[in-house]
Each structure stands twice: as C-alpha cells, then as structure tokens.
User: Which sequence fits this backbone?
C-alpha cells in the first residue's frame, strides 16, 4: 500500500519585514563609522583691537611663505629682501617642501635669514630652557582656483616635516620615535618643534 506524502507546512513570513527593519536599526545604532578629521593646522587668534600696529610686526626671517598661484604652480620664499638675504624659489614640487620646511624650522646652521633662536619660555619638561625657533611661522597662501589635491599635498609634506623632526629628536633624546614617547616626553618634544602652519599671512613684515 503506497504511503501518502506528508505536506510540509509553510513558514509564516508576515513578520520577516519587521525583523529585518529591527536588525537594520540595531546595526545602524551600534556600528561605528570612520570619520575624516581633516588636516591639523594652527590658525592665528583674532588680533587685539587695542594692540598697536608695531606690536604685530613679524620678522621676515621667521616666516616661510609657501604660495600656490592660479595655475597650481608652487613657490616659496623666506628672509628679508631689503638686506639681500631673501630666498625665493619657483616651480617647486610638493615633495620638495618637506626638506625645505625641516631646514627652516630647525635652522641647524643658525642662518641669519632663517628663524632666530630664543630660550624656551616657559621651560620645557625634561629639556629645561633649550634654544628653540619658537617664533617661526609657515604661511600657506593659495589661489581661489587652487586644486584641492595640490593643497592637500602641500599640507601633507609640511606636517610630515614636523613629524620627522619630532621623531629624530625623540630617537636622539629618548631612543624612540615621538609616537612611542610618554606624555611628558612628547610635551618636551613639541616645545622644541611646535607646529605652526597657518593660512593667514602675517599682518606686517619687519626687517631681518
């Protein structure tokens, strides 16, 4: 006698959409998303309205200007033109700026057309009062038509200059790169090489 086939009961799919929606909400609320934080940069504070014009004068030797024209051509200059100690270089590639910025920031040969040295004030952790180029500024000047890719490459190379200087000082002083240093050591290194990248041109240039 032939056996009758047993029917398999169908699944109730009426609540599937509700379950899928609940799972979607769960994953959206619990999953973290990477957010671009942008480039770190230091902008100057608003000028004091009671400050005298001469008080905001910046010595030309302390300013490295990186300029990009409407054709996305890069140039840089620093030093005092009146004294004949100005350096002006055109047709620069972004990758060339890292070495230029490192030499300018550190001024290892104490050149008169590069940032002047002053004792660290206030004293730095561990290092005390070393001579540092604390007044240096790197001013990035762009055109309204400058391509973002060019701008990003410039910022990346300038920031890399600070990272390399800090790593070199960390290795020399503590035997490890900046990222591996503790908080006190990093604070000391930052005091020697404070990051000063600005998009605002200094209000007035002074002599050497």
Assistant:
């Amino acid at each position: 006698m032939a056996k009758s086939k047993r029917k398999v009961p169908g699944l109730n799919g009426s609540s599937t959409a509700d379950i899928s929606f609940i799972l979607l909400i769960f994953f959206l609320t619990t999953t973290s998303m990477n957010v671009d934080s942008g480039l770190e940069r230091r902008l100057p504070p608003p000028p004091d309205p009671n400050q005298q014009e001469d008080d905001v004068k910046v010595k030309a030797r302390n300013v490295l200007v990186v300029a990009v024209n409407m054709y996305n051509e890069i140039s840089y200059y620093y030093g005092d033109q009146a004294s004949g100690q100005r350096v002006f270089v055109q047709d620069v590639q972004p990758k060339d700026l890292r070495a230029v910025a490192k030499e300018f920031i550190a001024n290892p040969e104490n050149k008169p057309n590069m940032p002047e040295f002053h004792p660290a004030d206030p004293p730095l952790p561990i290092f005390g009062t070393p001579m540092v180029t604390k007044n240096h500024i790197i001013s990035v000047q762009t055109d309204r038509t400058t391509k973002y890719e060019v701008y990003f490459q410039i910022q990346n190379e300038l920031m890399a200059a600070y990272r390399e200087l800090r790593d070199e000082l960390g290795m020399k002083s503590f035997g490890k790169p900046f990222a591996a240093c503790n908080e006190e050591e990093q604070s000391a290194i930052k005091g020697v090489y404070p990051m000063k990248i600005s998009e605002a041109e200094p209000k007035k240039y002074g002599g050497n």
User: Anything to note?
Assistant: The CA atoms of residues 13 and 182 lie 58 Å apart. The beta strands are 57-59, 63-68, 74-78, 87-92, 118-119, 131-132, 137-141, 197-198, 204-206. The chain is about 30% helix and 15% strand. The chain has a mean pLDDT of 82.
